[in-house]
Amino acid sequence: MSDTRNRWSVAKAMLARPDDKAGAHPAGGEKAFEPAYVRLLESGALARRVEEAYRHLEDCDLCARYCHVSRQATIDGAVCRTGSRAVVASYGAHHGEEDCLRGWRGSGTIFFSWCNLRCIYCQNWDISQKGVGREMEPGEIADIMLALQCEGCHNINFVSPGHVVAQIIAAVHEAAKRGLRLPIVYNTGGYDSPEALALLDGIIDIYMPDMKYGDSKLARAYSKVRDYVEANRAAVREMHRQVGDLVLDQDGIAQRGLLVRHLVLPDGIAGTESVLAFLATDVSRATYLNLMDQYRPCYRAKEYPPLDRRITAAEYRKAFAEATRVGLTRIDGAPCARERMLGPSE
User: How far apart are CA 253 and CA 102, in angstroms?
Assistant: First the structure.
């Protein structure tokens, strides 16, 4: 990890500049943000969470697959193909996330390899299905987190974390002991187990789940997973219970709360109406929703029409109109600005 430590040293020097906004004190006596995990660290509960999480790996129930494999000993039978060490594909300041996450300095993303889903249209299939990356110990992941903090990132953004919950908790514990004080973003495909979320309670500041489908039969067909909708909705309810609606600071940067992503798919495959109705009636009309239009055929999508085409402007407009109709008030995206990219509205 010498490259990481070098980046950390350079970033520290950059952050020492007096005109650097990231190093400024809160204005007007406003209380500085403190991430949730600091309280657990100070009480000793975070260390106990690490031990408890690794016990779960011995009969794994840390995602809604419930493989019950002893991942400390083997990956045979584990859908995620991940053992006791997480595999990291890449990391860095990411400027392609939602405005409230990327800000002006980027979101400190750490991309984990492998996945507990098998989406046939995955845009990152080389990471999720091929496992490109390197195994890392929690201390090495902590090094990365601290380097991203010193580079000025607004948060630490764990991408595809659902199968490495124990390893993440251990890394957060190590990084927090060494001075990590950024919000933690849990950027998940949404197939999370209650057991995992119970372990993460008080550690995660910002939950960012996908809500991929409104119909579990279609989830089975296109992501090769059972009971996705039931597991996903239970998880989103619990995430909201833990952190509430998304809270932004005075600069519009997310500090704590729930941010939901929903990717509109061709021919209504994502079950957009059902997903939006659930959010409005069962979660909160103030849920921060990124209604995404960027679907493009990837991986094996060409084999599964109608997923072999992009969505149309008309399909996105319909989804956006439905979001406003059910009363959702915080929608990231505007259809008029996107039609030029989406093409004909037939």
Answer: 8
